Amino acid sequence: MIGLLGQLFFTFFFIGLFNFGGGGAMLSLIQGQVVTAHQWITQAEFTDIVAISQSTPGPIGINCATYVGYQVMENAGYGHLAGVLGSTLTTFSIVLPSFLVFFLIIKVFNKFHESRTFADTMTALRPAVAGLIGAAALVLIFRTDWTALPPKVSIIRENFPDWKSWLIFAAAFALGITKKAGPIAIILGAGVLGLLIY
Fold it and tell me: What whole-number distance in Å separates Cα of residue 66 and Cα of residue 90?
């Protein structure tokens, strides 16, 4: 159990350290580590965790880390208390880099905030943030199934159960772009529609 907790700590510490753009951008990094690299949880479990993370208060990336920590320990066969410990550890480790970086920034910000290099660096990071958020969206929309027999072939499938889900997605996207609807209203509206339809 100690070895798994150590892996969780370092995995989420590095996710927190190299993430730019907030929780939405963090999702693709978390998915890449816990589903693809370490295979601690399944893609279906990760999709459920993201849905729960979006519907609970707080930053989605931290919420996701909390739920993933519990699920990983549960899948490894440990009990409820180990799951709580996993949640606490992943939450702490994903927040720790931001705390340390912010502490350092406070120390040096007054010295560099008028620097042209600093401004150019922040400008250059914006497309990368947009790309990470887009990658997180694609991770949730599609899943990759690998055939068991050689040669291994990847089959990309959609996670949406039917055309009605695509219709809800399109409506939510259109409302967000054209009407500038807030995310809370869109999430609540999509949730109500999902309950009525399914």
Answer: 6
Please check whether residues 176 and 141 belong to one and the same domain.
no
What's the pTM? 0.58
Q: What is the pLDDT of residues 42-93, one digit of tens each?
A: 988 998 898 888 888 888 888 999 999 999 999 988 988 999 999 999 999 9
The span from the CA of 120 to the CA of 126, in Å, is 10
Q: Are 142 and 187 contained in the same domain?
A: no
Number of domains composing the chain? 2
Give the domain range for residue 44: 2-159
**Do 90 and 172 sit in the same domain of this protein?**
no
How many angstroms separate the CA atoms of 50 and 137, rounded?
Answer: 11
149 and 164 in a single domain? The answer is: no
Residues 118 and 96 in one domain: yes
